[in-house]
Amino acid sequence: MRPVKLTMSAFGPYADKTEIDFNKLGTKGLYLITGNTGAGKTTIFDAITFALYGKPSGNNRDANMFCSKYAALGTPTKVELIFEYAGKEYCIKRNIAQENIKTESGRSKSKKEPEAELYYPDGRVVTNKTNVTKAITDIMGIDREQFTQIAMIAQGDFLKLLFANTKERISIFQKIFHTQKYYDLQEKLKHETLSLTNEYKKGVNSIKQYISGVECDKDDILSIDLEKANNNELPTDDVVELIDTLIKNDNAAIKTLMNDIDNKDKEISDLTAKISKAEEYQNTERSLKIYLNDKAETEPYLAELKNKLNAERKREPELAELNRSIANINAELKEYDELDSKNKDLKDITVSVSHSMEDKNAKADSAEKLNALIEKLKAEATSLKDADVEKLDLETKKGTLDKNIGEIEDIEKTVRNISALEKDLKNKQKEYISKSKDAKNKKTEYDMKHKAYLDEQAGILADELEKGMPCPVCGSVEHPMPAKKSAAAPTKEELEICKAQYEKADKLSAKASEEANSISNEISVNMKNALKAANKITNISSYEDIADKLSEKKKEYERLYSDVDTSLKNAE
Which of 106, 139, 158 is the last residue of a domain? Predict the structure, then answer.
């Protein structure tokens, strides 16, 4: 912005209408305004700033203070500024609110409200002081505070930009060079980077946790890579590839073992059949030997009995004859006794033959029982084989249920951690509110002391005057009436201490805000991971349902685990 022409009326020490044509000073370089103390240098800055923004250049002065007490009665206080910006010329007019403007007749006019008008190069006109100020800010891209810091160096304010903190400078330069959108993008990328970093760390920790449970044969060449993975010396992609390879190798080994088991089962079946046949043959052979021995022992006796039977059968005619002669030989007792004895022998032979037949039948029953026992043993062998398969299946189910319960407990641990983080977040938010309030109070205190310090510069300067030494303002070596400093005015050291306290409180407030934001991000990431892991176990629509749904699923898994464990014990 380059001022072209400034017109002041009843403004400060300029009682009459005063015009300053800056074109006479040229259009290049800087404008230097010099003069004695009280000559009105700062008033020119105030007039330019008032014309643009409706306020003077300094914070310790008010616009109403510029109504000139030297102006003729009835003269309104107003400023008109013609300025050039970006090759275009604008004109702005403002007046200061005044009450009871006296005329020469002594009468008072009604109150004159503040007015403002802005004339664009294309003829458009903006009125109303608020609208004009907003239009000027939009045209120049800076507000009054920034204008007074960078557009011109006013008396007493030349150190503002130099002493402005980093945050204030960033705000100034962002508005000047229109870089706010890049700063917003930078902050967004920063937060996204932090979020992705946290998520990446969670993923790495999860992989590390799972890889620690992976085992590999020490003689396997992959054991070297597995050790590197456990020591975080292997990239994530290589770790995933390593796990896939180990799983493939384990599946191949399991398949080989299952084939070996099937072959061994077949061999066992063949051996069992052969053993059964051998045992059956041995038992049959043993029974046959016993039968043959018994037969060999009984054959002579049977032969004798047969001979006796045949002999007796041959004597049947004699017996018949004897029966016919019984009546005749009743007196012959000896022959009668012999006949009785023969009848007795016949009965004994009949009983002996009966016993032999019973013994033969008993041996046949023993052979049948032996065959039944063999069949029973075969059935038990088959049952034992099926029991091994069932036991392996139960152990597999038990391991799967135990893993599922462990995953649920890990998620429950994460949920408890989130609850603890939420409590920490509330505490950090309370801490931030407290520290922010403290920083605001210290800033207010500093601003008040800074204003008092500026108001009392003359008094502070007078404290440093020494008799016989020239005054830094007027050069006089005599100081008959030095200005008096107010008792409430702070010293420079006190002001610096107050400023340091404010800056420290402001840093503590910013730190508390960052800590609360960090915890909030961590809660968000943990909730996302917990919900993702929980959805792999059961269908959950929102984070609030995790606790109840997982509790139900855990009870279901524990009940199944108990049933499988009982079945496994019974199988043993």
Answer: 158
Joined together, the tokens standing for residue 351 give: 């009983």
User: How many secondary structure helices (H) and strands (E) does the chain include?
Assistant: 14, 6
Q: Is 144 found in the same domain as 59?
A: yes
> Sheet of 88-95: strands edge to edge?
18-21, 2-9, 78-85, 88-95, 116-119, 125-127
Look up tokens 């392996």; give the residue: 392
Do the domain assignments include residue 567? Answer: no
Counting the structural domains of the chain, the total is: 2
Q: Give pLDDT, residue 157.
A: 45
Amino acid, single-letter form, for residue 291:
Y
Q: What's the pLDDT at 146?
A: 78
Residue 310 in tokens: 């045949």
Domain boundary among 119, 135, 158: 158
Please calculate the CA angle 129-135-136 and round it to the nearest 5 degrees. 90
Query: Taking 90 as the threshold, does the pLDDT of residue 416 lie above it?
Result: no
Is 127 in the same domain as 230?
Answer: no
Q: Which two tokens stand for residue 520?
A: 């909030």
Higher pLDDT, 15 or 193: 193
Tell me what pLDDT residue 353 has. 47
What string of H, E and C letters represents the secondary structure of 476-505?
A: CCCCCCCCCCCCCCCCHHHHHHHHHHHHHH
Burial 471-500 (b: 16+ CB within 10 A, else e): eeeeeeeebeeeeebeeebbeeeebeebbe
User: Is 533 inside any structural domain?
Assistant: no
**Segment of 80-94, 382-396, 439-453 carrying the highest mean pLDDT:** 80-94
pLDDT, greater one: 438 or 66: 438
How many angstroms separate the CA atoms of 423 and 360, rounded?
A: 94
Residue 311 phi/psi, 5-degree rounding, is -65, -40
One domain for residues 285 and 149: no
Residues 126 and 29 in one domain: yes
Per-residue pLDDT band for 384 (boundaries 50, 70, 90) equals: very low
Asked, for residue 127, whether it belongs to a domain, the answer is: yes
Give the CB-side neighbour count of residue 372, counting CA atoms within 13 A: 6
Mean pLDDT (the chain) is 76
Query: Are 134 and 240 contained in the same domain?
Result: no
The reported pLDDT for the residue numbered 376 is: 54
Please answer whether residues 495 and 455 qualify as being in contact, where contact means their C-beta atoms are separated by less than 8 angstroms.
Answer: no
In whole angstroms, give the CA distance from residue 294 to residue 284.
15
Q: What is the token pair recorded at 103?
A: 């005329």
* Residue 287, pLDDT above cutoff 80: no
Residue 180 amino acid letter: Q
Evaluate whether residue 243 is within a structural domain. Answer: yes
Q: How far apart are CA 154 and CA 33, in angstroms?
A: 10
The structure tokens listed for 128 are 């109303």
In the predicted structure, residue 571 carries a pLDDT above the cut 60: yes
**Whether residues 113 and 35 fall in one domain:** yes
3-state secondary structure of 235: coil
Residue 386 has pLDDT above 60, yes or no: no
**Full residue range of the structural domain in which residue 264 is found:** 221-302
Q: What is the pLDDT of residue 83?
A: 93
Q: How many CB atoms lie within 10 A of CB 424?
A: 15
- When comparing pLDDT for 379 and 173, which is higher? 173
- Name the strand (E) or helix (H) holding 450: helix 333-455
Q: Where residue 81 sits, what CATH number does that domain have?
A: 3.40.50.300
Average pLDDT rounded to a whole number, residues 196-208? 81
